[in-house]
Amino acid sequence: MSETTSTKPGATAATLTPEQAEQARRAYLLKRFWVSARGYWGRDGDKIAWVCSITLLALIGVNVAFQYGINVWNRGLFDAIEQRNADQVYSLGLLFPPLVLGSVALVSSQVYLRMLMQRRWRSWLTKSLISRWLTNGRYYQLNLIGGDHQNPEARISEDMRIATESPVDFTSGVISAFVSASTFIVVLWTIGGALTIPIAGNYVTIPGFLVIAAVVYAIITSSSIAVIGRNFVKVSENKNQVEAEFRYTLTRVRENGESIALLGGEEEERNDLDRTFANVRQQWRLLAWQYMRTSLVSHGSMLIAPVVPVLLCAPKFLDGSMSLGQVMQAASAFTIVQGAFGWLVDNYPRLADWNACARRVASLMVSLDGLEQAEQNETVGRIKHGETEGDTMLSLNEVSVSLGDGTAVVKETQVEIGPGERVLVAGESGSGKSTLVRAIAGLWPWGEGSVNFRKGQELFMLPQKPYIPSGTLRRAVAYPKPADTWSAEEIHVALDKVGLGHLRDRIEDEAPWDHTLSGGEKQRLAFARLLLNDPDIIVLDEATSALDEKTQDKIMEMMIDELPNATILSVAHRVELEQFHSRKITLERREGGARLVSDVDLAPYTRGRNVLSRLLVRPIIKP
User: Fold this and answer.
1) Minimal CA–CA distance to 373: which of 143, 141, 41, 44?
2) Average per-residue pLDDT in the chain?
């Protein structure tokens, strides 16, 4: 499976150097990002995407027109000052506020529309990616395959934000720069005209000297930033990766706080966090060095740009061929043109950061692509799911479970379970019991054979570590259905039956229940969910491992009494659980994958019987 996600950008990897292969991979990831991102403007995208885009372009054009108006006003004002024309100065002064208010209103509208597009584009693409991530248990399967998709939560949140915000800023910035440069180059050419300078006794005339100066100046600054910041993309990408790893390590400490505290592992965790954060500091040091170098160019350009046109125009002003107003208009136009040409200088760090974030999002997309292709590719071994025949509730037909790389975990399992049967799956640790259960639930897709259920039957699975969502206790009990699915009284009854009656008055309380409840209480809460859902088929994966033997017996007896017709498949190590089951199948780890080695009948469940007297071994063995 890992090969599926990595061969796309390097189909000719055998003929490429490592550097070329890496460049090809990066180029492919950016292309993959845009394949999904451009769908925002497609048939299934946002309905107002094109309206926002066109309106934003129109606002940019009108704003440049206002800039030109202010530029012309600037010339008139300084000409009036030079001529000491008080009436002209005052009349132009009255014209200035409307120009400023109009420009401010346009810029504010442009900012609002730009951020609206960013927000809606991020929302559309995030929902699309989350939908793919949650479909068919892919969020779980990503943990089982190789590929560059670690910390998907950071990629979907922070990286996605930057990946969708920056392109809108860049696009509007580039268009604004292009329109501004085109407009004010004409101004520079018209005002500046030609400059004649003496060289070695001859006179050389330079047409459009201000335009040439602006272009040369921009080439120098842009080339400088490109050379100085050539490693910016790589450094920014590494910074984002180590930041995500540091957040993940902190999250792990928070989620496993109880175990760490009980084991006294604070010092080891501190050392691990120090090592992880040392990587963060190192990458930020490299990034700071990159910022410092690019700041030398950008800040120097900002200081020099306003002075250059004044110095260039000074000879013509001094010989009387240019007025003060023309000099100031030329200086203003030169600054605007230089700002447009210097767009790369000002935005190169952000462009590098976007590049890194877009590739991280695309890496997750590529891994999801691989899972989707495997789901549709018949040549890749996948466990099929279908319907049983006759009265059989659940059947495993020659089911083999393998890892994503093809390594067998369980081989050729053949089991049929009838209505109301309670089957215990036993075997030593590592024999593939839990993996087989995940394959039955559809979470583990790789392998062969088929898992079949009777049509219309509801399956409910209880894992060893129940998930407790945030919010109220009522929501935790009702999960995965909405909190208002059952009445408060129904939830009270379920809590009473599983021994959590002391919490019945707190079902509307919002608290960190995942940390408040003990491991045993979480497992009992999971059984309360089971009672509320009343499923046809129940799969228990070490679902009572955190309970003491007495509580375990009470919970199992309660489940059988309350759901007497349910078909149960259990994975457990405790021999005490045999008394609550009618069959026991045993998996044994062997070379080439675990196999079903025995299937025995157990005596019918009755209260208060001796466990050892219940074994009726019926060896229908598959050696």
Assistant:
1) 141
2) 82
pLDDT digits (tens, 9 = 90+) for 187-206: 888 887 777 777 766 777 77
Instruction: Tell me the C-alpha distance between 491 and 483, whole Å.
Output: 10
CA distance 359 to 351: 12
- pLDDT value of position 10: 45
3-state SS record for 529-570: HHHHHCCCEEEEECCCCCCCHHHHHHHHHHHHHHCCCCEEEE
In angstroms, rounded to a whole number, what is the distance separating the alpha carbons of residues 591 and 467? 34
Number of H helices, E strands in the chain: 19, 13
Is there a cis peptide before residue 480, judged by omega within 30 degrees of 0?
Answer: yes
Mean pLDDT of the 531-556 span: 90
DSSP class of residue 616 equals E
- The token pair at 219 is 């080439």
Mean pLDDT, rounded, for 270-277: 88
User: Which of the following CATH numbers is that of domain 19-374: 1.20.1560.10, 3.40.50.1220, 1.20.200.10, 1.10.760.10?
Assistant: 1.20.1560.10
* SS3 annotation, 75-90: HHHHHHHHCCCHHHHH
Contact 385, 455 (CB under 8 A): no
CATH architecture of 382-614: 3-Layer(aba) Sandwich (3.40)
Residues in the chain: 623
Question: Looking at this protein, which amino acid is placed at residue 462?
Answer: L
Q: Report the 3 state secondary structure along 115-183.
A: HHHHHHHHHHHHHHHHHHHHHHHHHHHHHHCCCCCCCHHHHHHHHHHHHHHHHHHHHHHHHHHHHHHHH
User: By C-alpha distance, which of 433, 213, 177 is closest to 304?
Assistant: 213
* Euclidean distance between CA atoms 202 and 31, whole angstroms: 55
Mean pLDDT of 135-152: 80
Question: First-to-last CA distance in the chain?
Answer: 31
- What does the alpha-carbon distance between residue 149 and residue 365 come to, in Å, rounded to a whole number? 8
Q: What does the angle CA 580 – CA 585 – CA 589 come to, to the nearest 5 degrees?
A: 130
- What pTM did the predictor assign? 0.68
Query: What is the per-residue pLDDT across 413-460, written as a single tens digit (0 to 9) for each?
Result: 788 888 888 988 888 776 777 778 888 877 777 788 888 888 888 888
Q: How many other CB atoms sit within 10 Å of the CB of residue 444?
A: 25
From residue 98, give the alpha-carbon distance in Å to each of 64, 76, 92, 109. 15, 16, 11, 16
Both tokens assigned to 181? 């440069």
Question: Environment class of residue 419 by beta-carbon count within 10 Å: exposed (0-12), middle (13-18) or buried (19+)?
Answer: middle
Query: What is the spatial distance between Cα 623 and Cα 74, in angstroms, rounded to a whole number?
Result: 95
Q: From CA 473, how far away is CA 486, in angstroms rounded? A: 13
Burial of 200 (0-12, 13-18, 19+ CB in 10 A): exposed
- CB atoms closer than 10 angstroms to residue 591: 5
Inter-CA distances, 7 with 81, 101, 141, 143, 147, Å: 69, 56, 19, 19, 11
146: exposed, middle or buried (C-beta count within 10 Å: 0-12, 13-18, 19+)? middle
- The ranges assigned to domains in the chain are 19-374, 382-614
